[in-house]
Every structure is written in C-alpha cells, then in structure tokens.
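A further point concerns the way the authors explain their paired sequence and structure data. Showing the layout once, in full, would remove most of the difficulty. For illustration, here is how one protein appears when written out as sequence plus structure tokens:
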Amino acid sequence: MGSEEFQKRLSQELDNMKNIQKSMQKAMAAKQTLDGQLSENNVVKEELEFLTPENKVYKMTGPVLVEQDIQEAKQNVEKRIMFISSEIKAMNYGKI
C-alpha cells in the first residue's frame, strides 16, 4: 500500500468515524429528550393523584385550555409514560 493509498484510506476511515460520532450525538440527544419527557410525565402523574373529584384539570389544545376529566387525564398520562418508556427501551436495545 502506497503512501497516497494510505492517506486516502485514512481519510475515509476518519469520515466514517465522524459520521458515527454524529449519529451517536443525535441518539444521545434524543434519549435525553425522552428521559426529560418521562420525568415530566411522572411528575404530572404524581400530581394528578392528589386531586379530588371537585378539582378541575385543563389540557392545552393549541392556544386554548380545555377542561378535561381527571380520569381521562390520568389515562392519557399513563399512556404517554408507557409510550416513552417503550421508546427508551427500543433505543437502549438498538432498535431505533
């Protein structure tokens, strides 16, 4: 292998490494976002447990707050937690 071939091969490998690093950074950022969303939803779930039937819950729909049933809100939060958890698991096992 000549010096020129070696330089070309080295340059290709360096480009491959840079692409891998970019992919890893994107994956890490996505995982951090999911972890943050999971934490937020767990806090919401805990807060919803303190509510009584007399309390009101509002959901932001676009620029408008719409009243939502407490049980429906709890179910929605639980579904989000399950979805986010499954996304995190998939990332951890390399399926995303």
